[in-house]
Specification:
It is built from six helices and six strands. It folds into two domains: 101 residues, 3-Layer(aba) Sandwich (Rossmann fold); 81 residues. The chain has a four-stranded parallel β-sheet with strand order 1-2-3-4, with helices on one face. A two-stranded parallel sheet has the order 5-6. The protein is globular and about 50 Å long. The longest helix has 18 residues. Helix 3 links the parallel strand 2 and strand 3. The two termini are 23 Å apart. 41% of the residues lie in helices and 16% in strands.
């Protein structure tokens, strides 16, 4: 990878989806394995995606412990909470400096933070959707409104490379004031 490339990484499902089934020793080993992966990648951000469940992940002590241990290891934690983000969840995120990760083409984060982390799937079929000009405008508007110091945009789907390139060129054009050819 080029020297300026930055990895982020996604937390193991064994922690984010099955963590409350584990004993403390099992959770500890899995968290330490994730910390090793992040350090090997020299990553700054770990993404924790929790499933849409009927109860809040905050009812699981192992979830809170994993978040706190990732933070103590020096990682920024981005949480893609697929359950309802109620006031308790929002306050938990804010109190620990957790980034609320959302697809900015679909929704806005529950609160503004200095760092934005968005996984972009779009509004259509999960991996087949291609972002439209309207989607890119929505993305730009939401980024400008939240004014993050840093923003991570992670593109998904069959057109992810082309869409990341289109986004990069829009950013370059906006920052440098020069026209750049579109794909």
């Amino acid at each position: 990878m080029p020297p300026d490339f930055e990895f982020s990484f996604k937390c193991s499902r064994r922690i984010s989806h099955e963590g409350d089934l584990w004993d403390e020793a099992g959770l500890s080993r899995e968290v330490e394995r994730m910390v090793e992966v992040g350090r090997a990648l020299r990553a700054k951000v770990i993404l924790i995606e929790t499933p849409p469940i009927g109860r809040s992940p905050l009812t699981s002590p192992s979830f809170e412990e994993a978040v706190d241990r990732f933070r103590r290891a020096g990682f920024l934690v981005a949480w893609e909470c697929r359950s309802e983000v109620n006031e308790a969840v929002k306050e938990f995120m804010k109190s620990r400096g957790i980034i609320h990760s959302v697809d900015l083409t679909v929704a806005e984060p529950a609160y503004d933070s200095k760092v934005m982390y968005s996984r972009l799937f779009g509004k259509g079929q999960h991996t087949l959707y291609r972002l439209t000009e309207s989607d890119f405008s929505q993305l730009k508007t939401r980024l400008e409104r939240s004014k993050p110091r840093e923003a991570y945009m992670v593109f998904h789907g069959v057109a992810m490379y082309a869409e990341a390139y289109r986004f990069k060129k829009r950013i370059e054009r906006g920052l440098e004031g020069q026209a750049v050819a579109e794909l």
